[in-house]
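Write out C-alpha cells for LARG1 glucuronyltransferase.
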Amino acid sequence: MLGICRGRRKFLAASLTVLFVPAITWIYLFAGSFEDGKPVSLSPLESQPHSPRYTASSQRERESLEVRVRQVEEENRVLRTQLSLAQARGPAPRHGNRSKTYSMEEGTGDSESLRAGIVAGNSSECGQQPAVEKCETIHVAIVCAGYNASRDVVTLVKSVLFHRRNPLHFHLIADAIAKQILATLFQTWMVPAVRIDFYDADELKSEVSWIPNKHYSGIYGLMKLVLTKTLPSNLERVIVLDTDITFATDIAELWAVFHKFKGQQVLGLVENQSDWYLGNLWKNHRPWPALGRGYNTGVILLLLDKLRKMKWEQMWRLTAERELMSMLSTSLADQDIFNAVIKQNPFLVYQLPCFWNVQLSDHTRSEQCYRDVSDLKVIHWNSPKKLRVKNKHVEFFRNLYLTFLEYDGNLLRRELFGCPSEADVNSENLQKQLSELDEDDLCYEFRRERFTVHRTHLYFLHYEYEPASDNTDVTLVAQLSMDRLQMLEAICKHWEGPISLALYLSDAEAQQFLRYAQGSEVLMSRHNVGYHIVYKEGQFYPVNLLRNVAMKHISTPYMFLSDIDFLPMYGLYEYLRKSVIQLDLANTKKALIVPAFETLRYRLSFPKSKAELLSMLDMGTLFTFRYHVWTKGHAPTNFAKWRTATTPYRVEWEADFEPYVVVRKDCPEYDRRFVGFGWNKVAHIMELDAQEYEFTVLPNAYMIHMPHAPSFDITKFRSNKQYRICLKTLKEEFQQDMSRHYGFAALKYLTAENNS
C-alpha cells in the first residue's frame, strides 16, 4: 500500500507541476518583459542597438530572460517525460493476448518466480536511480579479432561516441591484426576524452583453447570468460559489448544500472529473446543448461571486484568441465558457459530490461521489448544474416545502423565541456605547430594541410601475404579517390604481385567501396591487396600523405611507386623481381625507372611486348607520357635510347624529372607540403637524387597511362592564380630546405630551377 500511495503522490505532483509551472513562469516572464508600461522584445531581430533605450543593462536583462525561457522549456520537457513514464507504470487494461511492455527503468522477467527469486530487487524503486557523475569515466570492454571485426567495432564506437557525454575508456582484447588497425585508427582519430588500452588476445588463447566451440566466433568468442584476469585488478566494473552492437542512447544510462545491483548480483544481462535454450527448435535439439530462456551475452555488466572475490575463474571452469563431459562442445561460445553458471547460481544475475539488448535474429521476441522504436536503447545484430534478418521493424534498425556506418567520424572529435582531457603529447605538438602558422598568410591553407591528421583505417579488407622465399618481392604502391575505382580490376589483372593502395574517401564512400569490392569476383579473389582508407578532411587532396600511407604498409623489401591511372605491362611483376637480383638492388642505392607511355583512347588493345608497343608508338596510338604538355617530366628517360636498348642504362637527374621507379622500402617518404596537383613527385625524385640514388632505366619494362577526366585539383591549378603562386612558394621553400639539409651538393637544384 505504501508503494502504491507513493506512486500516486508522485503522479499527482508531476501532473500539477506540468500544469502550473509553465503558467507561473510565463506570467513571471510576461511581467518582467515590460519597461515603463511597454513590452520589451526578446527577439534579437527586434532589438534596436542604436536607440537611446538600448543600453548594456537592458541587453543583459534580455539575454538573461532568453536563457531563463530555454531553462523552463527544458524543465517542462523533463517533467512531461516523467509524467508519461508514470502513466506507463499504471495498471494496463486486461486483454487476452496482449504484448508485454516494459518501463524505461525496470528489470524484466517472464514469471513471478523469476521476479521473486532470481532477480529480486530488479523492479523499479520510487526514488530515481543515482545519476552518473558528469566526468565519471565509463569503461567498455570489447573482444575484437581480424579484419572484418575491426570494421564492425568502428560502427559500434561511432554509435557510442555520438550519444556519450562522459569520458570513455575502451579496453580492447585484440589479436595482432585488430591491434594494428585500431591503434592506428584511434591514434589518427584523436577523439577527446577517449582512452584506448589493448590486451593481447593471442596470449589468452591458452586460457580457453581447451573448450571445443562450434560458434563462428571461434576461440575469440570465449574470451569474455577471462576478463576478470585480463583487465586491470583495480578496475571495479565494466560494460562488455559484442562488436555487432549499435547504441541508440547515451551509454551512461547503462552504466548507471550498476547502482541497482544488490546483494550478490555481479552480472547484468538481458534475457535471451529466442527459443534456443528451451530446446524445442528441432527434433533432438539439446542446448546447454540455462535458467528459463537463458541470457544473451552481447551486452554484459560485470562487477569485476566482486567476481574476483567469488573466485569467478574457478566457478566457470568447473562448470564448463562438468558440462563438456556430456555436451562435448559449446554451440554459442561464452554464452553457453555463462548460462550454465547462472543455472547453478541464479543469485549472480541482475536481469536488465530487454531494450538494453534487442536481439535481431530470426524468430525472436525482440518486438516485445519496446512499445515504439524510439524506446530502443541497444540493437544487437546477433544473427549470421546481420542486416538481412527478418523483423517487423528491420528497416528502421537497418537505417539506424547505416546512419552510424556512414556517419562522418570527424564530427565526433568534439570536446566534452567541463571534463578536462588527459594530456596528449601528439595533440599538444599539433596545436603548437598550427599556432606557429600565420593565419593571414595567403598560403595558410596549404601550410595547414601539412599538419592535418587524417583518420586512417588500415587493411579495410581481408589481407593475406606469403613472403617470397628469395626475398625479391615487389609491391605496387598507388593512391586513388572514388572516381578511379574502375581501375582496380584492370590493375589486378595486369599485376599478380602484392599491391598497397591508399584510398581517399568519406565514411559513406568507404562503404560504397566495400560494396563494390565485395561484388567484384576479380577483387575478392585477390587477398594480397592492402586497402588503406584515409578519410577525407579539408579542401585539398593529400596526395603525398596517401603515398606515404601506402608505402609504410608494404610487406615486401621492394616497391614499385606507381599511380592508379597506369596499367603495368603484362609480366612486369616477374620482370622487376629478376631486375632486383640482376642490378643488386639490395646492396646499392638504385631507383629503377619503368618508362611511361600514354594513350588517348578509352579502348586500347594493350601491347603484349615491347615490339608491339613500338609499333603502336609509330602509328600514333601511343605517346611518351605527357610529351605534349610536360615534356620535362620524363624527357631524361631518353626514349630514343630506350627503343633499341637491350640492357639497363643510367640517366642523370634533370629539373622537373618525375619518373615512376622501383626502390627499396627504406627510401625517403614524399614531402607532405605538396598537395593536390603539382610538384608532388618531382620533389621526391629530387630528394632521391640528393641522397645519391642512381637512376637506371629498365630496357624491357613499360607502363601505359589510361585516359580519364581532369581531376578537380588540376582544374584548380589551371584556373586559380593564387593556387599557382602558393605552389611556387612551397617549391622555393622546399629547395631551401634541401640546401640546408644536404649542403653544397643541393645548390644545383636551385641553379637547375633558375635555368629551366
